[in-house]
Amino acid sequence: MRQDAEHWLQDADSDLAAARKMADEGMYNWAVFAARQAVEKVLRGAHLVLQHEDPPQGHSLPRLFEGSFGEAPEELADDLRSLSREYMTTRYPDVAGGPTAEAYALDDAEHAIAQAERLLAWISQRLPSTS
């Protein structure tokens, strides 16, 4: 496996672990953002592995998914769309309609983490083993 792909995949796992820790600490907007970032990073790594080229520019999770796997299965499409929308809302008060730290609750963080876990598992199962 390409070393740069390995780096993206390792960072995806690290971001998901960070999302869990941030949720535990009450940093819900950052937990949602880290969960979202974990998915973006695993998709970028998957693109390098499967397409043998740099991933496309942009941050749309559905588009990144499509570039490596084609159309997302119905059970994943909602997760991809939902997490993709969190790219700006989690970080910018003008997009969130107020302080981002007040825009999210534990349920939001737990939901985003569960979505990311589903997506990372599905994607990881479709990548060649690193051993």
* Low-confidence segments: none
Compute the number of strand runs.
0
- Count of DSSP H/I helices: 7
- Tell me the number of structural domains: 1
The rough form would be described as globular
Largest sheet: none
Q: CATH H-level name... which superfamily? A: Nucleotidyltransferases  domain 2
CATH topology: Four Helix Bundle (Hemerythrin (Met), subunit A)
Radius of gyration: 14 Å
CATH level 1 name = Mainly Alpha
Q: Beta-strand level of the residues, as a percent range? A: under 5%
- Sketch the topology as an H/E string, one letter per element: HHHHHHH
CATH architecture assignment = Up-down Bundle
Distance between the terminal alpha carbons, to the nearest Å?
10 Å
User: What does the oligomeric state look like here?
Assistant: single chain
Look at the structure and give the mean pLDDT: 95
Estimated structural class:
mainly alpha
Binned, the helix content reads over 70%
Overall description:
- With 131 residues, the protein is an all-alpha fold.
- The protein has one domain: Four Helix Bundle (Hemerythrin (Met), subunit A) (Up-down Bundle).
- Helices cover 72% and strands 0% of the residues.
- The protein has 7 helices and no strands.
- The longest helix has 24 residues, at 28-51.
- The protein is globular and about 40 Å long.
- The model has no long low-confidence stretch (mean pLDDT 95).
